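Help! Submission page says 'invalid entity' but I think these are all valid:
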Amino acid sequence: GGRAWLKPGLQRALWVKNITRCKSEHLSPTLLLDRLPADFLRAVTCQVCDHLLADPVQSPCGHLFCRTCILKYGRALGPRCPACALPCPASELAPPAKAFMGILQGLVLRCPQRECGEGVRLDAYGAHCHAHGGDEDEGVGEGGGPPQGRGFDCYLPVNKGG
Amino acid sequence: GGRAWLKPGLQRALWVKNITRCKSEHLSPTLLLDRLPADFLRAVTCQVCDHLLADPVQSPCGHLFCRTCILKYGRALGPRCPACALPCPASELAPPAKAFMGILQGLVLRCPQRECGEGVRLDAYGAHCHAHGGDEDEGVGEGGGPPQGRGFDCYLPVNKGG
Ligand SMILES: [Zn+2]
Ligand SMILES: [Zn+2]
Ligand SMILES: [Zn+2]
Ligand SMILES: [Zn+2]
Ligand SMILES: [Zn+2]
Ligand SMILES: [Zn+2]
Ligand SMILES: [Zn+2]
Ligand SMILES: [Zn+2]
């Protein structure tokens, strides 16, 4: 069937890391302040990289990915949905519903900076981290801290939906 | 394995209908105003009855169900999660995170009453339908209209999370 080419589990995860290389740009769902239900976490994370959705786009089959992730994935592995293997050409990627974007942007993260730990909305997280200024080297984990030598705009789900 | 006893697809759906009998009390996700992404819909619907979560509880494995659905299901089929077959005793069902309950209660439904069609938040839907008064027989579909001869409180996800 159409799913046969999908690599399972760990092997796929390693592949994907090499394709997307987004670890320093995207945010880990472990930053979320609340212990949200498993299926909800799945709904707000990228089906390619498992980070919190950054500038998400939706496939015709209804799955969600960071825009850069699905484009890189499609170039490397062909235009099929990484979640369900249905056809997924770049031309048919669409913005998710505005109502969904509002929910995503309203998720509250815990600031990982030492001596802060404040709860910050996803759509304010870039500015918040920026305000911490030079404290960028405090060694938080994957996707946990501000990216090195980059702006913070990559955190924002810039796509407002439609 | 532990999943072997789970009945797939249609057969299971018919079973479950007979166990929960919640069609006239719960709301169909087709009432949602926005075309929300597939995984998000899964996150706000009951893994037993597929209606919008009503008074949801969370299993130790992180799956969500209407309280009445998982209790009826457990009594009929034993204390295993209907989504993943892990142990799911009634005593370990917990309220979902408050942040999730806020998102659920803020979902906007389209009022199915003829000549209304207004967008109404889930947590205001019962009162809204009640205000339509005697127009309760307009023949909307499954889970679409006010229940016959009942109050409207059953619509509310009364559990505020914790
Ligand atoms: Zn990523
Ligand atoms: Zn991604
Ligand atoms: Zn898909
Ligand atoms: Zn901070
Ligand atoms: Zn139901
Ligand atoms: Zn249910
Ligand atoms: Zn489960
Ligand atoms: Zn109405």
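Support: the input was valid. A stray whitespace character was the problem, and the output above is from the cleaned input. Residues 27 and 105 of chain B are 13 Å apart (CA to CA).
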